[in-house]
């Protein structure tokens, strides 16, 4: 009984970690590698999640050949029933939602950067993105056709619901979430060790110099925001599928700053650092939420959700005081050329002396 | 000898102040040109206009017969003009070697679709590393290759700026005060290196310089700017004999 509980806590923490990992990696790609102040992360995360809900709800109606209101209890029943009966709908719906959510989020990112391309000051772009995130949340909250407004869209079916047992389908979904996160991590590490990663860091260091050495900084910035938003959208789809519903108020700007905290704690411009920061933030988040449940049953009047903010704040201060570059500071990028020089160094120094 | 850069009637004003006042000049391939003038005479502005960081108000610039004024900096760079800056604009948190590997054009690994697949760009990268090794060796920077560019000395930074411009395989290199703040013997060395590059590879240099003692020994042709206008030009010996030079620098 206790073991079951521990397993379920570990699995849920692991899944939330995988989702946070993707988000933190994407922010680190944008800010840590390219210096873009993206204060609108939650917008792209939300776009992915809402797109997932919207796609799966409409697909269920389409497959069943009916036109019920996607917010009604009847529609929720229909989605779950169809997913239980038809693996093709369950998995196909998930894949479709994953593609739609990521691409839509990427396109929104592209649209926002293209329209703000002439803003040279990074912080103004940051404020534009922050405002865009918050206004979009308010629109979704009040305009029902997107995701049932205030109440949120319930009943996003687990893509493995057809295996029967709810526990097993959650396990399968966890594996899937982890696989997506792993692919993201590996791709990010590879890109950052390539000449492309070098170019991103060079742009961050000195935009003027990068431009006069032939780098098309506008194009690269668009690419970076497309990829970063694409990844955030992917995380949003996974999140919607894992918790099973989407509600506008889940996507306040506070989430954006959680992602920033994760990156700043772990180490800016360094994927392993970002991964450890994401781990810290997820563990604090899940631990305080679990404790909150226990304290409530024991009638102890401590609101852990606020304690969480205190812990995060204090941790942030400690890290900024003692390790201002994060827990794992950024090292030099080691592209293959750098490593070649390292191995050849001994030989050359001998040759120089002779 | 053919002209690779032709500047015609360039005007650039900042808030009504004429930084460049109707400048026209011609640059021939494979030579070392000097640009001199008092502070604020428009030398750096001229470089900024040629390299595309600033757009001229009027006039035209032709590079290898093609009109380039108004093009964005990266397009001009692609056509073969590289530059260094007065204040070194290195990528300070990146190792020296990575600084030299950024400029080469058409790097496959800089395309997003190839970047995650190391096999597709590794051989090109290693070729470039070999070239970087030669250049760093020539500039006596090989022993600091793994230091971050922010950690090396001021003189080394200046050398690295030149090395970085070399890596671009340009046809024309614009150097903005390559020897400012550098000990005289090293400055002499830098000019010898530049001259050698001119002779060996047929590269063309335009160098802004305040130290005429060194510049006049090496440059083949010098432009004198004053208050945004080209007031005199010619070989160093001819320019030294020109009374305008003394007038510009010492007043009437």
> What's the main sheet of chain A like?
2 strands, antiparallel
Structural class of chain B: alpha/beta
* Overall shape of chain B: globular
| Fraction of helical residues of chain A | over 70%
Q: What's the arrangement of secondary structure elements?
A:
The complex is a heterodimer of chains A (354) and B (252).
Chain A: H1 2-32, H2 41-64, H3 73-85, H4 87-115, H5 122-142, H6 144-147, E1 153-154, H7 166-192, H8 195-205, H9 207-212, H10 217-243, E2 245-246, H11 253-266, H12 271-297, H13 304-322, H14 336-353
Antiparallel strand pairs in A: 1-2
Chain B: E1 3-14, E2 17-28, E3 32-36, H1 43-50, E4 58-63, E5 66-67, H2 73-78, E6 81-83, H3 96-101, H4 118-138, H5 154-167, E7 172-176, H6 184-201, E8 204-208, H7 212-218, E9 221-226, E10 229-234, H8 236-241, H9 243-250
Parallel strand pairs in B: 3-8, 3-9, 6-7, 7-8
Antiparallel strand pairs in B: 1-2, 1-4, 4-5, 9-10
Helix pairs in contact in B: 4-5
Description:
Chain A has 354 residues and is mainly alpha-helical. Helices cover 77% and strands 1% of the residues of chain A. Chain A has a two-stranded antiparallel sheet with strand order 1-2. The longest helix of chain A is centred in the N-terminal third of the chain and has 31 residues, at 2-32. In chain A, 47% of the residues are buried. By secondary structure, chain B is an alpha/beta fold. Helix content of chain B is 37%, strand content 25%. Chain B contains 9 helices and 10 strands. In chain B, the strands form 2 sheets. In chain B, strands 6-7-8-3-9-10 form a 6-stranded mixed β-sheet, with helices on both faces. Chain B has a 4-stranded antiparallel β-sheet with strand order 2-1-4-5, covered by helices on one side. In chain B, β1 and β2 form a beta hairpin. The longest helix of chain B is centred in the middle third of the chain and has 21 residues, at 118-138. Chains A and B meet through α7, α8, α9, α10 and α14 of A and α2, α3 and α4 of B.
């Amino acid at each position: 009984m206790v073991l079951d509980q521990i397993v379920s806590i570990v699995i849920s923490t692991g899944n939330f970690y995988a989702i946070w990992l993707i988000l933190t990696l994407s922010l680190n790609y944008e800010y840590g590698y390219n210096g873009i102040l993206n204060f609108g992360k939650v917008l792209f995360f939300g776009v992915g999640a809402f797109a997932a809900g919207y796609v799966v709800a409409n697909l269920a109606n389409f497959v069943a050949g009916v036109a019920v209101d996607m917010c009604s209890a009847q529609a929720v029943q229909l989605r779950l029933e169809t997913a239980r009966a038809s693996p093709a709908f369950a998995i196909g719906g998930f894949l479709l939602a994953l593609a739609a959510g990521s691409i839509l989020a990427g396109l929104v990112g592209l649209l926002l950067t293209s329209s703000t391309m002439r803003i040279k000051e990074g912080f103004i772009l940051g404020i534009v993105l922050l405002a865009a995130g918050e206004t979009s949340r308010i629109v979704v909250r009040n305009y029902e056709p997107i995701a049932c407004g205030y109440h949120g869209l319930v009943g996003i079916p687990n893509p493995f619901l057809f295996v029967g047992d709810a526990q097993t389908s959650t396990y399968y979904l966890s594996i899937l979430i982890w696989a997506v996160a792993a692919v993201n991590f590996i791709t990010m590490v590879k890109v950052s060790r390539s000449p492309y990663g070098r170019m991103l860091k060079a742009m961050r260091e000195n935009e003027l110099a990068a431009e006069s050495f032939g780098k098309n900084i506008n194009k690269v910035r668009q690419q970076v925001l497309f990829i970063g938003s694409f990844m955030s959208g992917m995380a949003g789809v996974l999140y919607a599928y894992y918790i099973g519903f989407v509600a506008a108020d889940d996507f306040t700007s506070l989430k954006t700053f959680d992602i920033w905290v994760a990156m700043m704690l772990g180490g800016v411009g360094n994927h392993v650092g970002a991964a450890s920061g994401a781990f810290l933030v997820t563990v604090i988040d899940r631990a305080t939420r679990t404790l909150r449940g226990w304290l409530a049953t024991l009638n102890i009047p401590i609101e852990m959700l606020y304690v969480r903010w205190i812990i995060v704040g204090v941790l942030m201060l400690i890290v900024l005081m003692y390790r201002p570059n994060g827990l794992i500071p950024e090292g030099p990028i080691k592209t293959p050329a750098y490593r070649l020089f390292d191995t050849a160094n001994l030989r050359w120094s001998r040759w120089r002396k002779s | 000898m053919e002209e690779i850069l032709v500047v015609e009637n360039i005007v650039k004003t900042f808030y009504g102040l004429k930084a460049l006042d109707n400048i026209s000049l011609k640059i021939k391939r494979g030579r070392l040109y000097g640009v001199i003038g008092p502070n604020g005479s428009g030398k750096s502005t001229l470089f900024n206009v040629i390299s595309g960081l600033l757009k001229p108000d009027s006039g035209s610039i032709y590079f290898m017969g093609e009109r380039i004024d108004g093009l964005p900096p990266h397009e001009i760079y692609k056509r073969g003009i590289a530059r260094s800056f007065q204040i070194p604009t290195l990528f300070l948190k990146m190792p020296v070697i990575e600084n030299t590997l950024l400029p080469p054009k058409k790097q496959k690994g800089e395309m997003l679709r190839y970047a995650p697949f190391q096999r597709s760009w590794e051989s090109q990268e290693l070729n470039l590393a070999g070239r970087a090794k030669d250049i760093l060796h020539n500039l006596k920077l090989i022993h600091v290759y793994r230091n971050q560019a922010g950690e090396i000395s001021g003189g080394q930074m200046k050398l690295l700026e030149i090395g970085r411009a070399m890596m671009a395989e340009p046809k024309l290199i614009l150097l903005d005060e390559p020897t400012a703040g550098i000990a005289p013997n090293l400055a002499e060395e830098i000019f010898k290196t530049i001259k050698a590059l001119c002779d060996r590879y047929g590269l063309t240099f335009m160098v802004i310089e305040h130290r005429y003692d060194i510049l006049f020994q090496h440059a083949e042709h010098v432009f004198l700017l004053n208050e945004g206008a080209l007031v005199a030009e010619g070989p160093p010996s001819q320019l030294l004999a020109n009374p305008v030079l003394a007038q510009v620098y010492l007043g009437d």
